[in-house]
Design goal:
By secondary structure, the protein is of the alpha+beta class. It contains three helices and four strands. A four-stranded mixed β-sheet has the order 2-1-3-4.
């Protein structure tokens, strides 16, 4: 069971679109290392500190994309499937628990 935002996101358990950032980087580029990706579309960078605890297993990407699916943040598994999606104000605690579920305990 994936954690989603209150209304339930149809994006969870679906293959993520190949989001393209303003610098030309795409989600596909970020997934090439075989790590998960935390996509943060907000300006507050609220997930950056949490994502850093898994830097050996997950990348963090910040910035606007062409179509963010109405989400503030997404967690993408290494296979490109959305594991978690949350609205415009992503909750770091919910993100933390979801990352543990998919990527194990954080690196000490």
């Amino acid at each position: 069971m994936a954690t989603t935002w209150a209304g339930g996101s149809p994006s969870v358990d679906c293959t993520a679109p190949d989001f393209r950032f303003s610098d030309g980087t795409s989600l596909g580029d970020l997934l090439r290392e075989g790590k998960g990706v935390a996509l943060d579309f907000t300006t507050g960078q609220s997930l950056q500190e949490t994502a850093a605890c898994w830097k050996d297993r997950m990348r963090y990407a910040l910035g606007p994309v062409g179509n963010d699916l109405g989400c503030g943040a997404l967690l993408i598994r290494p296979d490109g499937v959305v594991a978690w999606a949350e609205g415009r104000g992503p909750d770091p605690e919910t993100f933390w628990h979801t990352v543990i579920r998919w990527f194990g305990e954080p690196t000490p």
